[in-house]
Amino acid sequence: MNAKRLIFPGVGAFAAAMDVLNKKEMAEVLCAYIKQDRPFLGICLGLQLLFESSEENGPVKGLGLIPGVVGRFDSSNGFRVPHIGWNALQITKDSQILDDIGSRHVYFVHSYRAMPSDDNRDWISSTCNYGENFIASVRRGNIHAVQFHPEKSGDVGLSILRRFLDPKCEITKKPPVHRKASKLAKRVIACLDVRTNDKGDLVVTKGDQYNVREHTKENEVRNLGKPVDLAGQYYLDGADEVSFLNITGFRDFPLGDLPMLQVLRYTSENVFVPSTVGGGIRDFTDGTGRYYSSLEVASEYFRSGADKVSIGSDAVYAAEEYSKTGVKTGKSSLEQISKVYGNQAVVVSIDPRRVYLKDPDDVEFKAVRVRNPGPNGEEYAWYQCTVNGGREGRPIGAYELAKAVEDLGAGEILLNCIDCDGQGKGFDIDLIKLISDAVSIPVIASSGAGAVEHFSEVFFETNTSAALAAGIFHRKEVAIQSVKEHLLKAGIEIRM
Ligand code: 1PR
């Protein structure tokens, strides 16, 4: 109650948050603070909790300050849920903290949303269109709340925080902007494969078809720069997201890997777009016999600044088991982490390898007709999932895995392709189409980008939500800005 300004950044599930607020007797205090019209900014769940109730694992009662029920997005109309990515807003009234936004995009990541109604109309300061118009922000007097994440919305997001924190900004009010609703922007993601080199330094590396060693006598790990510096550079260059993959995480215990946690901490000080970290997320018993659950590993990554974690090998084992039994045990890393942090915080990274076939009925897994026939003229292929950085093929296809992990709680799929990795010949359109048509969660296309045209190709030919590249950005062959300018010219909505 003594705070001059209060920021309430909600992360996680509605019921769990309300439980804590009630137990700690914070709900009452928050309501009193808000009713006194003291400066308040709620973010994401911090907006939703102001409403009467939520359907998330509910109905669950909220703080009840704004009329309305928070409900789940409807995925039956073809829109992917969670809503992850960059959207522009329809500003409906003078919102003060949104004055610098104009037509620029802000970052959303959520599966639940509040809807406009006659009862809450006077609260709404902006809406956003994602299959339907939902409430993007509210304002009444000094009370503000936003469904998107200003802290992850680049410089436009920082200006929102600055305007909230610095009351002097109030004097430069601009009239509200009325614009046509926009679509969800396609994302361009920079990926940093990170590992310790032979000298013990944590470096960004990149290989061909998952081999990251130089083709020299010394056979060293290819060193393409320092992770924090590169991530900072990519943020300034316009990356919509940055991914770190700790590529030897499958054999080194990540919580023993303090440099990786430092990388996340330093990165989050300067990079104001979402970051994902993957590698080694699984249950683990260390040399002293101490057991760490995958949830503890993920929690440490989140606490160090990651917005999402990505699970590779462990998700393959979970999907194999689930495909066999049809039973959700609730014990897999995927299920445990998504239950606590929400589906939107869990990405599954798939590392498939093409296996050519003469006849699609030759395997029990989903096969597709491929654009470029195999070495012996084979017209079909299935995509075999691998674990341990592509070292071991498993008895499950990418299609079956994608469907299973969606069921188990993944919020997004990072779809690599070992055959295309580092080749610069373009994304595997057959694979990306297969997977993005099979699931209703967002898919990130990865592996093979070599030119700006490869990005427009993957967005025109598939339903992918984002495209990720590594090598061309690290080797400075193509700048992220050039990719975005190309996409803009091609008529694809992106965040500039
Ligand atoms: O299995 O949970 O420990 O996770 C390990 C993670 O590390 C997985 O996400 C796996 O994809 C990744 N990984 C493991 N080994 C390698 C390797 O390269 N030796 N990197 C590796 C995978 C693939 C992409 C790459 C794109 C784009 N890297 O992320 O960045 O292919 O590259 P390009 O644009 O240069 O073609 P776990």
TrEMBL record:
Keywords: Amino-acid biosynthesis, Glutamine amidotransferase, Histidine biosynthesis, Hydrolase, Lyase, Multifunctional enzyme
Catalytic residues, chain numbering: C44 (for gatase activity), H149 (for gatase activity), E151 (for gatase activity), D193 (for gatase activity), D351
Chain positions recorded as L-glutamine binding sites: C44
UniProt-listed GO biological process terms: L-histidine biosynthetic process
Ranges that cross the membrane: none
UniProt cross-references to CDD domains, sorted A to Z: GATase1_IGP_Synthase, HisF
Record-annotated Glutamine amidotransferase domain positions: 5-164
Residues that, per the record, bind substrate: G280, N416
Pfam families: GATase, His_biosynth
Catalysed transformations (reactions): L-glutamine + H2O = L-glutamate + NH4(+); 5-[(5-phospho-1-deoxy-D-ribulos-1-ylimino)methylamino]-1-(5-phospho-beta-D-ribosyl)imidazole-4-carboxamide + L-glutamine = D-erythro-1-(imidazol-4-yl)glycerol 3-phosphate + 5-amino-1-(5-phospho-beta-D-ribosyl)imidazole-4-carboxamide + L-glutamate + H(+)
GO MF terms held by the record: glutaminase activity; imidazoleglycerol-phosphate synthase activity; lyase activity
Region annotation (PRFAR binding) ranges: 312-313, 349-351, 421-422, 447-448, 470-471
Pathway: Amino-acid biosynthesis; L-histidine biosynthesis; L-histidine from 5-phospho-alpha-D-ribose 1-diphosphate: step 5/9
Domain of life, per lineage: Eukaryota
Family, similarity comment: In the C-terminal section; belongs to the HisA/HisF family.
Job description of the protein: IGPS catalyzes the conversion of PRFAR and glutamine to IGP, AICAR and glutamate. The glutaminase domain produces the ammonia necessary for the cyclase domain to produce IGP and AICAR from PRFAR. The ammonia is channeled to the active site of the cyclase domain.
NCBIfam families named in the record: hisF, IMP_synth_hisH
Name used for this protein in its record: Imidazole glycerol phosphate synthase hisHF, chloroplastic
The species this protein was found in: Olea europaea subsp. europaea
